[in-house]
Amino acid sequence: MNVGCDDMHTLSPRDGPLLTPHSTLWLPDDPSGTFARSSLWAVHIFRLLEPHETRALVALALEHAAANGWSTRRHKHHPTTDIAVERETAPALHSAVKPLVARVVLPTLALHYGFELCELQMRDLFVVRYQQGAQDRLTPHRDGNLLSFSILLSDPSEFEGGGLRFHSLGPACDACGGLRAAAATCRRCDGVGRLALPGCGCGDLTTHSGKLLHEGARVTSGTRFVLVGFVHVTSPEIDHEFISHGSLANSSAVGAWADHECVGGARLSPPSSPQREMHTAFDDETALAAHLFGG
């Protein structure tokens, strides 16, 4: 099946929609009172793609995989079974996805997390496959970047289990009640005590700080495809040393108790305004897209 970028959005940055979430979950208040709540504490879920658009992207990914295979070694500490969405190695996927990310996803991230669009830049973009009998999950981790997003490309009827699961927010496991002693041996939540984010449908966009401890929950049947993006933030309001090299903020061994410090410590100061001008630094669409994708 040949699918081109005509099947995807063709919105310009200036008239592209800044999405409104249909669901938002917040990191609970810091019990120590050290860190005040900020926009980085929020996990948002948005309606984004229609079913025919997700099918088009999955078809492109499968075409690429049939010719080139799936990668399993791109990420050192928490590798995924994936396809890098790069111009040189996956041109058809890149052409289909880049306009969507540059014109809709990144402006939406900038708006809801209090940054300017020119302060965001893609660091990695890839299609992940979770499959029973192969790689069915991703172990708990913190991303190396401040912001992350994922777009579910599979219909929930095509798989069981799976989903994005956070260790400090989201619903308690309905099997063990989220109690530590019971959760340790619970197969439903794999010992986390929480379930994956509810209400995420096919084509939905989920955004969050990569510094929140999270994982890909186990797929128990079927196949689940997800488009994942890692976003670097260059804002002077951010502690870049802490984000990139802080041992706490980059440790998967440190539990959910550290989420307040990992997220709260990333921001040096609150944003000057909850909504900021998105395009002041780039009047030319080509220059803006080149900046957002690092080239």
From TrEMBL:
GO-annotated molecular function: metal ion binding; oxidoreductase activity
PROSITE patterns: FE2OG_OXY (PS51471)
Gene3D superfamilies referenced in this protein's UniProt entry, alphabetically: q2cbj1_9rhob like domain
Record flagged with keyword Iron: yes
Keyword Repeat: no
Keywords: Iron, Metal-binding, Oxidoreductase
Domain named Fe2OG dioxygenase: residues: 118-233
Organism superkingdom: Eukaryota
Family: Belongs to the iron/ascorbate-dependent oxidoreductase family.
Identification of the protein by name: Fe2OG dioxygenase domain-containing protein
